[in-house]
Amino acid sequence: MTDSDLARLIALLAARSAKRGDFVLASGRRSALYIDCRLTTMSPEGLLLIGRVGLAALRASGWSVDAIGGLTLGADPVSYAIAHASALTHEQGDGEMLRAFTVRKEAKQHGTGRLIEGPFVAGDRVVVVEDVITTGGSALKATEAVRAAGATVLGVLALVDREEGGREALEAAGLKVLTIVKASQLVALMSV
Hints:
The strands form two sheets. Strands 5-4-3-6-7-8 form a six-stranded mixed β-sheet, sandwiched between helices. It has a two-stranded antiparallel sheet with strand order 1-2. The protein has about 190 residues and is α/β, with parallel strands linked by helices. The protein has seven helices and eight strands. Strand 3 (about 65-70), helix 4 and strand 4 form a beta-alpha-beta unit. The chain has one domain (about 45-185): Rossmann fold, CATH 3.40.50.
């Protein structure tokens, strides 16, 4: 990852994912800023940049991570991009591969009845992923699920922190939080 990768990611999120207006957020709060990360996280360039930048953030943290994932749908492309980036760098002899997983909002009512999908293994050291942190509720729900399934949660990786108290709520719950982009960085780049 380079500084230009982070700058390109911030510019992409500001151009595609950040909108001004009057919005009701998933938390129920009203906001003049809406950040729909999926417009970036599901694009080819967004996936490339998120994979590089997210993997670099995890490696810089010093955490020994086995798997990454979070509550579907927002965390999914972020986790998958980072897992893919880890496979590419592993091929070049740089670091271990990370597995990705998805936490369902509720367990399947058929088949295996799983709440966590993917190559998740009890005993994994995991990082819970969030696309946007507002209150921290989604990350806390995912944390509870993976802990109940036998994982150790090392912390939370957020693509965007709305800077509205979610990070502090997660830290108050004993979780370390890595943030890639802050909402204020996006607002600074948005056209007037």
